[in-house]
């Protein structure tokens, strides 16, 4: 994980799940009332975390669940959101999981349960049905409003205050009825997604105990808040209701007592330590270390924190100790590369990132880009040429890596290839949903590109998107 303020957070989305109060914020796992989104990402707003290790982990969590749900060929993308609350939601073909959920979940099974629940929404087509239900509710509210307005007008025309008052009540009452109808529908969809999740967990031989743990956490938070919540005015069932509906079913499963493998638990703990180090600092890491002192995950968290605090010599020593324990762990090599880059030793960082790429079975697009950055820092003509190849390799795996286009444009600029530099800049704007800026740079690139060449045609596609955005 690279420095969050610089490289790991890209502002891709403005999706605002409805929230009712801080006390019930934790209830919002599941499909929320979603606004329409852009093609490549989303209007700016949600801080998205990119990290090869954590992305590989959640993909491994989701793969068997998606297979069980019939979603393995649906191109579902999991996006990590830099938010400390325990939350997850879906939008289009994307599933968003907060880093706070990963931090608070003490076992992989808890997050797998969350993924299974969200998969239930996707497999059940809940998003489209929710949009249809919203449309019906809006129609109900509009009709009620028109009837109410008619009664108000009639009351005014006849000087009948009672009739006019009834009209106001009819208008507001109709709107409230529509809202309650919609919320009731959403609660039903949440319960359906819960049941689907149990089915997927059973199919994959996994326990549903993690789901119960999650709902119990929500119930405890709600009780401690002292908030009084009207269960008919929220979009999700109350945690206790969800526990009551699922507990017997989960406990009857032959998989109830199954636990996560030690290797998977270790990966989960490492991800939690990394998130804690980057987002919450020394205090959070220390609290976690007190529960698992001496573990490899705790050592990893300590090395990450030492690196972030700028003690590079100590961080490298701690990372080398980690590599002695797991010499083929790609993310230990990645951390070593980060330390060497920060220490101004890019040649050594290139080798470290190279080993990370070599051992990365998930084939992340992020690691080649990081090696490309190190090659750019070397700055020789041959290193820059290699940087272009590595960054393009990363982009072939991950087309929406916005930062990568900036480094690619820099690399092409260093070689004097202005056309490709401008096209790379256009791509970065395109995947940031800044279509007008993308079209400007694409048009500039076209003036230097061979007409009808693949690069020229790609520039034309971006220009056409820019024209559509202006309409």
Automatic annotation (TrEMBL):
Keyword list, A-Z: Hydrolase, Metal-binding, Metalloprotease, Protease, Zinc
The protein's name: M48 family metalloprotease
EC number(s) recorded for this UniProt protein: 3.4.24.-
EC class of the enzyme, as a word: hydrolase
Molecular function as annotated in GO: metallopeptidase activity
Listed cofactors: Zn(2+)
Domain of life: Bacteria
Signal peptide per UniProt: none
Record InterPro entries: Mito/Outer_Membr_Metalloprot, Peptidase_M48, TPR-like_helical_dom_sf
Peptidase M48 domain mapped to chain residues: 54-248
Classification via CDD domains: M48C_Oma1-like
Plastid keyword on record: no
Any single Pfam family the record assigns to this protein: TPR_16
């Amino acid at each position: 994980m690279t420095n969050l303020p610089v490289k790991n957070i890209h502002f891709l989305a403005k999706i605002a799940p409805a929230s009712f109060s801080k006390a019930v914020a934790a209830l919002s796992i599941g499909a929320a009332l979603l606004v329409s989104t852009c093609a490549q990402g989303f209007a700016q707003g949600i801080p998205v975390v990119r990290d090869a290790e954590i992305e590989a982990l959640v993909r491994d969590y989701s793969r068997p669940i998606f297979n069980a749900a019939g979603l393995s060929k649906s191109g579902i993308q999991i996006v990590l959101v830099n938010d400390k609350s325990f939350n997850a939601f879906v939008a289009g073909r994307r599933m968003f999981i907060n880093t706070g959920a990963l931090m608070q979940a003490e076992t992989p099974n808890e997050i797998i349960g969350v993924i299974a629940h969200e998969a239930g929404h996707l497999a059940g087509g809940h998003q489209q049905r929710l949009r249809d239900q919203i449309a019906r509710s809006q129609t109900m509210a509009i009709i009620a409003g028109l009837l109410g307005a008619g009664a108000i007008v009639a009351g005014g025309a006849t000087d009948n205050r009672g009739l006019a008052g009834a009209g106001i009540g009819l208008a507001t009452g109709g709107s409230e009825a529509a809202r309650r109808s919609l919320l009731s529908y959403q609660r039903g969809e949440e319960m359906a997604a819960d049941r689907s999740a149990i089915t997927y967990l059973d199919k994959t031989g996994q326990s549903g105990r993690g789901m119960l743990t999650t709902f119990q956490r929500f119930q405890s938070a709600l009780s401690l808040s002292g908030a009084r919540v009207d269960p008919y005015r929220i979009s999700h069932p109350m945690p206790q209701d969800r526990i009551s509906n699922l507990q017997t079913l989960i406990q009857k499963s032959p998989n109830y007592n199954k636990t996560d493998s030690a290797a998977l638990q270790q990966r989960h703990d490492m991800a939690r330590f990394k998130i804690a180090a980057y987002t919450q600092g020394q205090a959070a890491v220390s609290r976690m270390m007190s529960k698992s002192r001496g573990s490899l995950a705790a050592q990893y968290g300590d090395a990450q924190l030492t690196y972030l605090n700028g003690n590079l010599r100590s961080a490298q020593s701690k990372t080398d100790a980690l590599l002695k324990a797991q010499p083929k762990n790609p993310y230990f090599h990645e951390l070593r590369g980060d330390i060497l880059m920060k220490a101004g030793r890019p040649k050594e960082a290139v080798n470290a990132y190279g080993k990370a790429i070599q051992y990365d079975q998930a084939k992340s697009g992020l690691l080649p880009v990081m090696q490309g950055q190190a090659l750019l820092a070397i700055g020789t003509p041959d290193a820059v040429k290699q940087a272009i190849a590595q960054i393009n390799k990363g982009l072939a795996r991950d087309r929406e890596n916005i930062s990568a286009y900036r480094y690619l444009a820099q690399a092409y600029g260093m070689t004097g290839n202005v056309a490709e530099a401008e096209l790379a800049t256009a791509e970065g704007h395109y995947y940031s949903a800044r279509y007008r800026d993308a079209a400007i740079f694409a048009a500039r690139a076209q003036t230097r590109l061979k007409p009808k060449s693949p690069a020229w045609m790609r520039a034309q596609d971006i220009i056409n998107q820019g024209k559509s955005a202006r309409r």
